Amino acid sequence: MELYLDTANLEHIDSVNKLGFLDGVTTNPTILSKEERPPFDLIQEIDRKLSGKIWYQVTGSTADEAVEEAIKVANMCHNKVVIKFPFTLENLEGIRRISQKGIETNATLVYSIPQAIFAAKAGSTYISPYLGRIDDAGGSSIQFINDVKQAYENLGFDTKIIGASIRNAQHLVDLSKNGIDALTISYGNFEKMLHNTMTDAGMEQFQEDWDKIKNL
Ligand SMILES: O=C(CO)[C@@H](O)[C@H](O)[C@H](O)[C@H](O)COP(=O)(O)O
Fold first, then answer.
1. Are 12 and 40 in contact (CB under 8 A)?
2. Which one of 24, 41, 77, 131 is CB 3.0 to 4.6 Å from 52, fit for a cystine?
3. CB atoms < 10 A from the CB of 81, how many?
4. What is the domain-level CATH number for residue 97?
């Protein structure tokens, strides 16, 4: 399973990237806007720090604009890029044209089986269903992921599914039970999920007991 950090914050990227198991970072206009810097400078700085894939979301509204933006970003990065296309008719053409150039693609904001099928037909490497937002709207994210997996298996597509908008540990429990190709987690949720009160209590006890004997 591929694991991505859903951030463009350089400190957060450093602190997880040094662990050595990160497959890259995922960004979108919202994530980039939090850093309040020129976006392409920031993408290039992330590229210098990282060994992994950089996911960049195109903002153009026509296929030609999106393709031009995708090629510009692919050319400015040394790492492999994954170009994210919000799901629109124009962007299905963008996905096909960029995929044909051998650059990985992602259809993002995918909320239905027809959208998942059309993205796969366009040749998308990945699709990103937003688990948290599906659940917020009263749907079942895990049911949706399972339905897409079943559809892809039945129809013979090898498009991968990346779980996005992961909000809590239960999402990871569900995805691990059912299988997922990739997932992306914000730094805040990654940090939260590292901790467990029983681990903390156990550590405190070990430290206390060690302190009693370490100077004997
Ligand atoms: O789509 C991808 C990765 O493909 C993510 O970057 C995705 O945009 C983010 O996970 C979401 O924007 C975060 O969602 P939320 O927590 O704001 O609902």
1. no
2. 24
3. 23
4. 3.20.20.70
Print the domain residue range for 129. 2-213
Q: Tell me whether residue 115 is exposed, middle or buried, using C-beta atoms within 10 angstroms of its C-beta: 0 to 12, 13 to 18, 19 or more.
A: middle
ipTM of the complex, rounded to two decimals: 0.93
Is 84 catalytic? The answer is: yes
117 within 8 A of 89, measured Cβ to Cβ: no
Distances (CA, A) of 173 to 55, 103, 167: 25, 32, 12
Please state the domain count of the chain: 1
Distance 135 CA to ligand 1 centre (A): 14
Q: Determine whether the shortest distance from the Cβ of 105 to ligand 1 is under 6 A.
A: no
Is the Cβ atom of 106 under 6 angstroms away from ligand 1? yes
What confidence tens digit (pLDDT) does each residue in 52-80 have?
999 999 999 899 999 999 999 999 999 99
d(CA 60, CA 132): 26
What's the residue count for the chain? 216
The reported pTM is 0.94
Query: Which amino acid would we find at residue 90?
Result: E
What is the distance in A from the centroid of ligand 1 to the CA of 108? 9
